[in-house]
């Protein structure tokens, strides 16, 4: 250290913390996020077992998907029952008709396979969040921290509700990741 450093007020450089010590707040936040991820996994498992409408009209969405898979027509004739409004965009019903048709052809439960497709979209979102975080920073734990925050309970609802949120988000994150990896 030179006399110029002392006169300018810079003083001693800050000492690095001991290698074994980490701030307690970091550990508390990490423990909370890990516990939240386990809660999300348990809630997802129970939702797959119970097949219940979780506040959104899953049965109406399932009816729209099944009608599209059977007839190839997305919008039903308005002069015929059932009078079901199409709540989501057409791409969602087209995408969900693929696992529905696979389930119907193989004899599996269509509800379970559709919910697993939504869960796969959620897992794809987490993977893309990890890849984007790893691409944006050199901090080696950034990807894991981003996934923990993305999977935390206050930010997400049920991962098995038949809604297009995760499917749409998957494509948005894929576009962001492709922009980040492009030259």
Question: Can you characterise this structure?
Answer:
The protein starts with a helix and ends with a helix. The chain is built from seven helices and no strands. The chain is elongated. Helix 3 packs across helix 4. It is mainly alpha-helical. 63% of the residues lie in helices and 0% in strands. The mean pLDDT is 76.
Descriptors:
mainly alpha, about 65% helix, 7 helices, single chain, about 180 residues, elongated
Mean pLDDT, nearest integer? Answer: 76
Instruction: Determine Rg (CA atoms, Å).
Output: 24 Å
User: pLDDT under 50 segments (min length 5)?
Assistant: none
Tally the beta strands. Answer: 0
Q: Which percent band covers the strand fraction?
A: under 5%
Describe the main β-sheet briefly. Answer: none
- Indicate the percent of residues in helices: 55-70%
Order of helices and strands: HHHHHHH
Structural class determined from secondary elements: mainly alpha
* Termini gap: 43 Å
Discrete helix count? 7
The global form is elongated
